[in-house]
Amino acid sequence: MRVIDNITTILCNIENAYAEITQDITEVSLWDDSFVSSMARKLACLIAVPLLKNNQAKVQELEQLYAMQLQNIRSQSASEEEENQLKIPDTWVLARGGWHGI
Predict the structure, then answer these.
(1) How far apart are CA 102 and CA 100, in angstroms?
(2) What's the rounded Cα separation, in Å, for the pair 72 and 70?
(3) pLDDT, mean over the chain
(4) How far, CA to CA in Å, does 29 sit from each of 46, 72, 95?
C-alpha cells in the first residue's frame, strides 16, 4: 500500500484485479440522502423514548419508520451489489477465454 497525493493506493501485479473496500466516511458532505435519513430516524427513536414516556404508540411508530427505511436501504444495496457482480466474470468464463472486459 502506498500514499500518493494523499490518496491511499493498493498496488497489485494481477491483471484485472477486483477489490471491494469499505471505510468510514467522516466527511459529512459525502453522506448520501438515504444514510442521513436513516440516521435521523434512528436518532429520533433514541430521543423519543425518554420524551414520550406515556405515548408508546408514537415510539413504536418511529421505530417502524426506521425499520422500513433500513429495509429499503438494504434492498437498494443488494440490487447495486448484483449489478456489480455481473461485471466480474466467473473463473470458468476466464478459463475458456470468453470474457473480454466491460
Answers:
(1) 7
(2) 5
(3) 77
(4) 24, 22, 43
pLDDT at 102: 47
Question: Strands, DSSP E only, in 1-102?
Answer: 2-4, 7-9
For residues 7 and 4, give the distance between their C-alpha atoms in angstroms, rounded to a whole number: 5
Question: What is the distance between the alpha carbons of residues 53 and 58, in angstroms, rounded to a whole number?
Answer: 10
Handedness of CA 91, 96, 98, 101 (dihedral sign): positive
Higher-confidence position of 88 and 13? 13
CA 57 to chain centre: 31
- CB of 9 closer than 8 Å to CB of 2: yes
Nine-digit cell string for 3: 500514499
pLDDT digits (tens, 9 = 90+) for 62-83: 889 888 888 888 888 777 766 6
DSSP characters over 62-88? HHHHHHHHHHHHHHHHHHHHHHHHHTS
Chain centroid to CA 62: 22
